[in-house]
Amino acid sequence: QVQLVESGGGLVQPGGSLRLSCAASGFTFSSYPMSWVRQAPGKGLEWVSSINSDGGSTSYGDPMKGRFTISRDNAKNTLYLQVNSLKLEDTAVYYCVTGAWDYWGKGTLVTVSS
């Protein structure tokens, strides 16, 4: 069955960086676009970024542009999100999702705090 397992979250100070990873299995990873979606405490879901199946095309939500970078390694069935210049408002659970948002991982928590 489809499995998406996120890792790499943690506590970081404002201005810091993290690299989130999502290990995918149970489907042909290289054939699907993928996305990151986040949910801040007490708030709704927010689209973060998407990448097409071969990694040649990416897109970002406006608050993330210039600070976040999505990438993938199809040989390793892994999706990444490099998050830089973190702000307090980036605190959220970050989810890895398949292209149609039909499969979700359990998420990894990023906490930005001084």
Structural topology:
Blueprint (H helix, E strand, L loop, with lengths): L2 E5 L2 E3 L5 E8 L8 E6 L5 E7 L6 E3 L7 E6 L4 E6 L8 E7 L9 E5 L2
> Helix/strand/pairing class, anyone?
mainly beta
How many strand segments?
Answer: 10
Which percent band covers the strand fraction?
over 45%
Main sheet specs:
6 strands, mixed
What is the H-and-E element order?
Answer: EEEEEEEEEE
Secondary structure tally, helices:
0
Uncertain stretches of 5 or more adjacent residues: none
Radius of gyration: 13 Å
Beginning-to-end CA distance, first to last residue = 40 Å
Strand order of the largest sheet: 2-10-9-4-5-6
Question: pLDDT average, as an integer?
Answer: 97
Shape: globular
Model description:
The chain is mostly beta strands and 114 residues long. The protein has strands spanning 3-7, 10-12, 18-25, 34-39, 45-51, 58-60, 68-73, 78-83, 92-98, 108-112. The strands form two sheets. Strands 2-10-9-4-5-6 form a six-stranded mixed sheet, with no helix packed on it. Strands 1-3-8-7 form a four-stranded antiparallel sheet, with no helix packed on it. The N and C termini lie far apart (40 Å).
Task: Quickly list its features.
single chain, 114 residues, mainly beta, six-stranded mixed beta sheet, four-stranded antiparallel beta sheet, globular
Quick rundown:
The protein has strands at 3-7, 10-12, 18-25, 34-39, 45-51, 58-60, 68-73, 78-83, 92-98, 108-112. It is mainly beta.
